[in-house]
Amino acid sequence: EWVDMPRLLEELVEDGKALSGSRHHRFELTCEPGLLLEGCESELRSAFSNLIFNAVKYTPGDGYIGVRWYADKAGAHLSVTDNGIGIPAAHIPRLTERFYRVDSARSKASGGTGLGLAIVKHVLNRHRAQLTVRSQPGQGSTFICTFPTALLRRAGTRTARPPAS
Ligand code: ATP
Ligand code: MG
Asked: How far does the centroid of ligand 1 lie from the alpha carbon of residue 34, in Å?
């Protein structure tokens, strides 16, 4: 299934704005037009919404949330950047473990179970994609999902293999 990433991400940013509500995060969406990804739309939707919802949860009101979809020589990247509370380096390697949360104070304040990033990791594995996390406590976080070039297509270009219907 070819997933129209710019359209999907527009929807997910709208969901993020709804979740932000009166906290008024400033969203910015930047997409390479017509860059499609072969994958399972419902799985990708749940993975990317987890990243965007985390950004909303762990960024104070009026904060910035940037979502980008772009390609380079390494593949295509979906990045979610925020200028929220950030994550201490020691926790980063364990974030995708089921039920792992950075501290109980933030967990209580925000609700949730600690499964979001485990789902992200699982969905990315199924798409041969990698997750990269960069974060500084008090500065913010960036989560980058990198997909192999073999899974990309530009709308309007020919492909050797016809899109699955
Ligand atoms: P759930 O997603 O199940 O509702 P959760 O958000 O706590 O709960 P994960 O999404 O797996 O669980 O995230 C794990 C932990 O990583 C979070 O508890 C939080 O401490 C930290 N974290 C995730 N995303 C961010 C972020 N954008 N900024 C700061 N901390 C984050
Ligand atoms: Mg989460």
From this structure: 31
Closest-CA residue, ligand 1 atom 12, reads 114
pLDDT tens, position by position, 102-142: 986 666 667 788 999 999 999 999 999 999 999 999 999 99
Ligand nearest to the CA of 118: 1
**In the sheet that 75-82 helps form, which strands lie side by side, from edge to edge?**
26-31, 64-72, 75-82, 140-147, 130-136
H/E stretch holding 6: helix 5-20
Which helix (DSSP H) or strand (DSSP E) does residue 14 occupy? Answer: helix 5-20
How many Å lie between the centroid of ligand 2 and the Cα of residue 51? 7
Which ipTM score applies to this complex?
0.99
